[in-house]
Amino acid sequence: MKLCEQQRRTEILEAAKEIFSVSGFHKADMNEIAKAANIAKGTVYLYFQSKKDLFIAVIKNGLENLAQKIRNEVKEIEEPVEKIKRAISTYMFFFRENQLLYRILLHPDLELMDDITETMKDVKLSKLPQLADTIIRGIEEGKIRPIDADALSYMILGMVDFSLFQWLSSTNAEPIEKKIEQVNEVLFKGILSG
């Protein structure tokens, strides 16, 4: 894809993300998306076959950007616990900056759940084995107690997602750094006193 075609595609995805985050899938209108991207409606269909394809592309593009950002942030880190902490903070900072995408993920259309789940498996959940590998290395180094690495990967993702949801839903939210600190505190020190 040529540079200007890639740029046009990106502009369409950004406009669609904004419209989908406000209107949802069914109420979003392709004319409105085209207008927000400053192009003709027919041009949108040169890049995406349907509104559904565009919706899934918005999610996939966002999750791929997240995965790439995490990869870039952790690639130089060897120490397993620090690598996990950096992945958590990068994930949470990413969604602080990409709240429109998070809103779309929070309110998916039930009709599209299978497609969204498949996209999440392809992009987001496919990264969990890398997290599991980091956990295994931490176990081997004696820094993480022996535990099922795959199960722990899902638990970490769940804890981070719900903490992020709580932070984004709060009207008087504390700084996200505080929420990241709380997640790491519970994850690496537990909830028991003493």
Describe the structure.
Helix content is about 75%, strand content about 0%. The protein contains ten helices and no strands. Helix 1 packs across helix 4 (about 50-75) and helix 9 (about 150-170) packs antiparallel against helix 10. It starts with a helix and ends in a 5-residue tail after the last helix. The model has no long low-confidence stretch (mean pLDDT about 90).
In short:
The protein is 76% helix and 0% strand. It has 10 helices and no strands.
What are the SSEs and their pairings?
Elements: H1 3-27, H2 30-36, H3 41-47, H4 51-74, H5 80-97, H6 99-106, H7 113-122, H8 128-140, H9 149-169, H10 176-189
Mean pLDDT: 90
Low-confidence stretches: none
Domain tally: 2
Return the CATH class of the largest domain: Mainly Alpha
In terms of DSSP E residues, the strand content is under 5%
Binned, the helix content reads: over 70%
Q: How can the largest sheet be summarized?
A: none
